[in-house]
Amino acid sequence: MRIGTDGIIAVVGAGTMGAGIALVAAQAGHAVRVIDTQDAALDRGRQSVAKSLASLVKRGTVDEAGAAAIAGRIGWSTDVGDAAPAALAIEAIVERMDVKIGLFEALARHVAPGAILASNTSSLSIEAMAAAVPGAERFAGLHFFNPVPAMKLVELIPSSRTAPAVIDDLEALMRAWRKLPVRVRDVPGFIVNRVARPYYAEGFAALGEGIDPATIDQALESAGGFRMGPLTLADLIGHDVNYTVACQVFDGYAGKTRFRPQPSQQALHDAGQLGRKTGRGVYDYGAELPAPPFAAPAAAPRRIEAGTDAGDLEALVALAEAV
Length: 323
Fold this sequence. Notes:
This protein is of the alpha/beta class and about 325 residues long.
């Protein structure tokens, strides 16, 4: 069943990921129903979508009428029963297997038998989840990345029970949403989180050794070519999510050293300093972000001297003096 723009999308979880998925689906023309158990979470989700749409208007990507139409396609609810007419229901809730399975059991009671159920988990086993999901042939992993509107990559993860047509339909839908879908094996962390764990770990290991955080991030951005250093990126994602994934990948690979969670990140997690979402993580977002403490450049030399045997280098010395 290919899902056209007339297909309703249900997103369970109104956090950063859920709100981002809802916005992308609404931009693609779908009616979207965002469901969360907490009114406060729904309010934050609305504000997140409104902020993103205001940014699009400011950049000239959409006009005011277009932004209003996108916002009007998104409904907000605390009742999981409102997912009933969805052609696709995506969960974007806490990374706990028992909570996710409980949600899918509830969704399966409400949505039509032909509706696709998808998990946005970043590290939990799709195979293990599928074993407990009613109608596992219509269930798969559909892993977006933060921030969802900007990040093109989406990981598609089937279980051994997933019907091949479901993955085909999800791939077609993601392409219609202007995403880049990649089919992935169900291994701990899939592709991106498996590759990224050592990137974060080395950053937090250096932080634990007392190296200035801005220096760590600047080194990876300038010398490594990354758009964000590991500490800035972990602050953006949130240490509640990022550290939990670190622990799950570490456990999934039987404690391999390169996946070991770092105590410096655990300390932030345990202190509730979760990054941008709480105003403080590695960095304090209530203050101006620090610049790397680089040494000031030395003054230019006043003159250059060369020995009498400079030979062929004399021309080079003359050019240097002229600069």
